[in-house]
Amino acid sequence: MTLPTDPLWPRAGGWPAPEPGTDADAALLGVPTWRTSLSPTGAHATPAAVREALRRYSPTVLLQGEPERHAIAGPVEPVDLDEVLRIVDAGDVDEPDGPDGEATAREAVARFAERTGLVIALGGDNSATYPVAQGARATGLITIDAHFDLRDGVSNGSPVRRLVEDGLDPSRIVQLGIADFANSSAYARRAAEWGITVVTCEELRRRGAADVIADALDVAGAWPGDEASGVRVHLDVDVDVCDRAVAPGCPASVPGGLEARELRALVRAAGADPRVTSADIVEVDATADAADGRTVRLAALCVLELLAGRALRAADNARGMLSA
Questions:
Q1: What's the mean per-residue pLDDT of the chain?
Q2: According to DSSP H, which parts of 169-255 are helical?
Q3: Any idea what the Cα angle at residue 144 is, between residues 196 and 261, rounded to 5°?
Q4: Where is 11: in which H helix or E strand?
Q5: pTM of this prediction?
Q6: What is the pLDDT of residue 258?
């Protein structure tokens, strides 16, 4: 479908390729893993589909101000992501599966992480989390996921276990949205034995996004002890944490998961924190989505929510400097 053109209604996405030696606030990078998925998937088609879906949205966030006397609501202040942030699109990692592919993905993420405030990896299945978090040199991990991803072996069900076995401190891992009937007792016990912080889907829903993300960042964003290393939290956004009604393109999504607005609120809250320096958006199979593309569109909105968190923080900092 051809989208209408309006010079007063710019579209999100379409960001330029990075220029050598130039810093950016955020970089998009496709990591289309899929070959070790436990479920049949066409997730390697998803980065291109998300980029296309981004064009359906504007880059504008609307802030509601405080109401004046006798007013129903305060004035709306628009914040344009492209005016506040420098965003680049680094293209896709070619064939990121397997040891060689993981090494290539790791190197690509590391290259952009050096000059970028936030690297956003577009999966692909959840196996992308392993090389992306390592390439970003993550000292902590927050997953928004229905599953523990602590399985034995090498698959999209094992990235968290692999990261721990390669040295990531499990006491700095927080798993949000872990769901009933989507995990085994053995892996639940493994999470507990390793000291991973777990917030179930029901507990997350009860407490709300802002409260849960703040606590998660206190754990995952704890100072690692080595002052030279700094704090770098990786955020794993597994869209199958959502209700199947809004995420039919996720092979493992189930009825009763998070609502789309709940996921978006969590992602924006995490994106606003400077300790979050990398993120992945995974487990969307663009080839199995509903006819209206709702799962891919939700993944695209997660990209925008990460950027919105960054932009709103930058806008707040700018206002603070002006008022000082």
A1: 94
A2: 185-194, 201-207, 209-220
A3: 145
A4: none
A5: 0.96
A6: 97
